[in-house]
Amino acid sequence: MLRALLQYFRPYRARLIPVFLASILETCFNAGIPLSVKFIIDRALVDRNQRMLLLIIAALAAGAVIVSVTSLGRDYLYAKIVGQIVQSVRQRMFEHLQRLSMAFYARAEAGDVMSRFSNDVSAVETGLAAGVSWGLQPLLDLLLSAVLVFLLEWRLALIGIVMCPLCILGPRLFAKKATDASVAKQEHESRIMSLLQETLTAPAVVRAFNLQDTVIDRFRGRNQRLFGAGLRMGLLTSIMERSANFGTLFLQVVVMGISGYLTFLGVITVGTFAAFQTLFVSLSYSFMYLAQYTPNLVNATGGMIHMEELLKEKPGVEEPAVTVDLSPLREALEFRDVHFSYTRDRRNLDDVSLTISSGTSVAFVGPSGSGKSTMLNLLLRFYDPDSGAVLYDGTDLRQAKQTSLRAQTSVVFQENTLFNASIRENIRMAKPGAGDAEVEAAARAAEIHDFIVSLPQSYDTLCGERGGRFSGGQRQRIAIARAMLRNPSILLLDEATSALDPATEQALNTTFDCLARGRTMISVTHRLRTVVNMDRIFVLDRGTIAESGTHRELLSNNGLYAHLWQKQNGVHVDADTGRATVDESLLAEIPLLARTSPATRTALKAWFRTERFNDGYQIILQGDAGDRLYIIARGTVEVLRDNAKQLHAKLGDGDYFGEMALLSNEPRNATVRAVGPCVCLSLERDRFQQLLIEEPGLRREIEQMAAARAGAQA
Predict the structure, then answer these.
(1) Taking 70 as the threshold, does the pLDDT of residue 32 lie above it?
(2) Is 558 left (phi over 0), alpha (psi -120 to 50) or beta?
């Protein structure tokens, strides 16, 4: 444990010399007091030597003043060193986090990372801070006292040394178990922090879905496990401390009995007896101090191990020793024979090759999970291809300096984080040295300047936590202004409007069309209406390029793009009222409704009602009785199996789910959860059953089809 913690002191070895010397001075003074007892008794009191008595007392008084002053200086210097060590550790961890790749953040829990900056750093700080007063000083006192007791009476000292293993047996036996228990306790603390962080960032979701009891039960379980881990650690460290204390006290009694007997026989003088006992008590208490310091040492070691786990994380994307600085894009971006997988279980991109010419606007579209966002992740070099290469004007991005790549790109995400700072500071983050005029010009380009100046504090208005003081559209425009301040040669849009209402989306798309002039714009989206005017559209399917071309060319191909276009254009959301409607053509694509006549489908349209769901809302639950069919008018949902543990599919605009619920209330075979805000059309079974009563022939056909489908699934 000591070896592990001493590594933190290596950079401060020279500054620790005065600390060590001051501790030696204090140790000598502490040892001098018991020795003075011998001289006071044998030389001053027995011989009635007043001058000797005054000299000894004066020397002790002067020593007390000197030691107090030097110890105060030592404590200040040591506290400064410990503070700098803790500051350095925090800085190292934070800087290391900035170098880690997106793969780490995809699997790490925020609360676990935060715990390393709070609980673990605090444990290490406490252990180091007590290092001199409860570690170094008692250790030096122990060593010097051991030497002096040998000089006073070697036979007694030898007895004490022989019995000393009693004092260290407990700590020796239980140190490893106590350290493991400390690490386990800190891991449980991390899990508590993770749950707390999740709950604090989503209070509206917890209340809206009545999840209070659920999260309370989860917290209670984790809190109980933390209690158990803390109890085990406390018991083991207490055993270490108490066993050392018991051994020390027992040793004191034995030595006192033997030395008293030797004094009674006249083998040693009364002064030697008193000095020896004082020294041995000092030695014993040094053992006890070290034993009491052990729990702090255990906690500090556990915290250090936990922090080192983070510091040992390797970036998935690393720069070579020699890198190339990228200048603004002149020719093209190219994907050349790219293969990539996040988990190695399946390929997210499979032999992708394409070229994006400088100054053009392109889009990546396709079904959910087809690899659209993965393309963007590779362009931003959040990940590297497993094989193949992404080229920037012919330069492999793995050979390029990452900072120079980011300097040429700006990205607008679906959810853009605004920091709890002023609007001006949030925009300026893209270019820290930008003047106010540049910030305002970027805001004008994003068409948010007029709104900002209408605020009482204008550009100095605080955005609030995660930009919570503004609407989704306003946050997006501030994020666009931040992206444009850099004046990038490449503008990347990652579902930048998918979480917004139709009116805001339309306005932002107009803004993007203006911003695309004179630069390369790459958009990832599942909403095809936003890519109609793109120079080129790449359609991805299961990690491959299924087709590419302009909007007109792709429609004429009558392939996947045309199918997606037809499906998405079968649903509409009114920009003013927010009401959703569905076309007869899309209803005809649903197997159970395909046998209905056009007139019947026209009647059915009026029976659909609009429902809105917030991010994370569980629209249907596996095992619940089904009662309605849903068609997604706008947004994305996840279909989850195995009690919401396994992702089965993602559905988007124009997709439907819950079809069999129109025939019976059999239990749902999956959970469907909204990903972001979602607008759906729903048709209740009772309505549909009413239609079947009116058309018995249709009822027989549909029941036969449903029976055949159920048999096939079985």
Answers:
(1) yes
(2) left
Task: Say if residues 71 and 22 touch (Cβ distance below 8 Å).
Answer: yes
Q: Which of 46, 70, 121 is nearest to 91 (CA)?
A: 121
Q: Could you tell me the domains of the chain? A: 2-309 (1.20.1560.10), 334-548 (3.40.50.300), 572-713 (2.60.120.10)
3-state secondary structure 348-397: CEEEEEEEEECCCEEEEECCCCCCHHHHHHHHCCCCCCCEEEEEECCEEH
Produce one character per residue of 12-29: b if its CB has 16 or more CB atoms within 10 Å, e if not: beeebeebeebbebbbeb
Give the helix/strand (H/E) hosting 632.
strand 628-641
Residue type, 64: A
- CB-CB contact of 363 with 522 (8 Å): yes
Helices and strands in the chain: count of H runs, count of E runs: 26, 18
User: What angle, 0 to 180 degrees and rounded to 10, lies between the N-to-C axes of helices 270-311 and 13-39?
Assistant: 160
DSSP 155-187: HHHHHHHHHTHHHHHHHHHHHHHHHHHHHHHHH
The yes-or-no verdict on residue 333 having pLDDT over 90 is yes
Closest CA to 167 of 258, 280, 249: 249
Structure-token pair, residue 515: 């911003």
Angle at which helices 137-152 and 13-39 pack, to 10 degrees? 40
Confidence of residue 536 (pLDDT cuts 50, 70, 90): very high
pLDDT per residue as tens digits for the range 282-319: 776 777 777 667 777 777 887 888 888 888 888 878 88
Q: How far apart are CA 178 and CA 244, in angstroms?
A: 15
In the structure, what pLDDT confidence band is assigned to residue 209 with cuts at 50, 70 and 90?
very low
**pLDDT given at position 244:** 64
- Cα dist from 454 to 460, 480, 485, 643, whole Å: 12, 19, 21, 49
CA 539, CA 535: separation in Å to the nearest integer? 13
- Tokens found for residue 114: 């935060």
Are 337 and 351 a contacting pair, CB within 8 Å?
A: yes
- CB-based burial of residue 589 (10 Å sphere; 0-12 exposed, 13-18 middle, 19+ buried)? middle
Phi, psi of 334 (to 5 degrees): -140, 135
Could you give the CA distance from residue 654 to residue 568 in angstroms, rounded to a whole number? 5
Q: Are 368 and 650 in contact (CB under 8 A)?
A: yes
Q: Phi, psi (5° rounding) for residue 517?
A: -65, 125
DSSP-derived letter for residue 116 is I
Return phi, psi of residue 603, to 5°: -70, -40
Euclidean distance between CA atoms 239 and 233, whole angstroms: 10
Check pLDDT > 50 for residue 436. Answer: yes
* H-only helix segments in 202-266: 203-208, 212-265
Within 10 A of 476 (CB to CB), how many other CB atoms are there? Answer: 27
